[in-house]
């Protein structure tokens, strides 16, 4: 039977309260919601998750319907998402309502949804270069790519300087196109080496800098994140783009 996300949420709200003094495993309905949410966030097909977790497609489907499966299968699913074994199965004391609310606030209240797209056009490069800072997010990218990623960072920093009001004389239209092509060549080299490069612009107003913007560049391996090319949004913690507070004067 097909079960929608709303069906799962309805079942979660109808669950009896867990004992506050006895460790228990997370209810399967909550596990189903978290698995489905994680898979959707990564733009993974059911078959992709099954491959990474080394379980059958029917096992993934059963989990997402809130049906019981083995602890081993749940541990494999957890590890496919980067969690530790036991994330879905280990008994734990439930959080109080206040603790749960505080946890949600700490996890989600600082997140900003940033539209992103593959960094394959002059416009994408221009938008990134027009920002005041660049944030590169590279989860699970091996150190072997460090030099190439540092090269992309340097190209973007150079483009930001050249396109700013500081550079004299301002670049010609042909000069800008050549600069954009050089950056896209750098991106293309990363793509040919098995990475996906996405970019977007995040408004990040600061004290006395209301127009401050940050270019968000996401670099992920296609081997472990095959759905990245279809991703259209990233969630970025606003705290990582905040400028350090300077000394106050009176």
Number of domains: 2
Task: Quote the beta fraction.
Answer: 5-15%
Mean pLDDT, to the nearest integer, reads 84
Helical fraction equals 40-55%
Structure characterization notes:
By secondary structure, the protein is α+β, with helices and mostly antiparallel strands. The protein folds into two domains: 5-104, 434 Repressor (Amino-terminal Domain) (Orthogonal Bundle), CATH 1.10.260.40; 111-241, no CATH class. It has helices at residues 5-13, 28-41, 46-53, 57-64, 71-80, 97-108, 122-129, 146-162, 173-192; strands spanning 111-115, 117-118, 133-137, 195-203, 213-221, 233-237. A four-stranded mixed beta sheet has the order 2-4-5-3, with helices on one face. The radius of gyration is 22 Å and the shape is elongated. It starts with a helix and ends in a 13-residue tail after the last strand.
In short:
This protein folds into two domains: 5-104, Orthogonal Bundle (434 Repressor (Amino-terminal Domain)), CATH 1.10.260; 111-241, no CATH class. Helix content is 42%, strand content 14%. The protein has nine helices and six strands, in the order ααααααββαβααβββ.
List keywords for this structure.
9 helices; 6 strands; 2 domains; alpha+beta; single chain; 14% strand; four-stranded mixed sheet; two-stranded antiparallel sheet; 434 Repressor (Amino-terminal Domain); 42% helix; elongated; 250 residues
């Amino acid at each position: 039977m097909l079960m929608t996300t709303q069906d799962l949420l309805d079942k979660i709200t109808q669950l009896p309260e867990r004992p506050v003094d006895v460790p228990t495993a997370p209810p399967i309905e909550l596990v189903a919601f978290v698995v489905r949410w994680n898979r959707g966030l990564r733009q993974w097909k059911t078959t992709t998750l099954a491959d990474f977790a080394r379980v059958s497609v029917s096992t993934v489907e059963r989990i997402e319907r809130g049906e019981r499966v083995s602890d081993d299968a749940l541990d494999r699913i957890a590890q496919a998402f980067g969690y530790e074994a036991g994330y879905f199965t280990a008994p734990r004391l439930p959080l109080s309502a206040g603790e749960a609310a505080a946890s949600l606030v700490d996890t989600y209240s600082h997140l900003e949804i940033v539209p992103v797209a593959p960094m394959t056009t002059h416009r994408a490069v221009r938008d990134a270069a027009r920002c005041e800072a660049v944030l590169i997010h590279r989860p699970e990218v091996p150190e072997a790519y460090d030099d190439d990623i540092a090269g992309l960072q340097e190209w973007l920093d150079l483009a930001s300087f050249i396109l700013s009001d500081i550079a004299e004389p301002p670049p010609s239209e042909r000069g800008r196109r050549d600069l954009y092509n050089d950056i896209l060549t750098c991106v293309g080299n990363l793509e040919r080496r098995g990475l996906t490069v996405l970019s977007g612009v995040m408004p990040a107003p600061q004290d006395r800098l209301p127009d401050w913007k940050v270019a968000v560049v996401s670099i992920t391996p296609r081997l472990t994140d095959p759905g990245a090319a279809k991703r259209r949004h990233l969630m970025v913690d606003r705290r990582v783009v905040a400028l350090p507070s300077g000394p106050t004067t009176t």
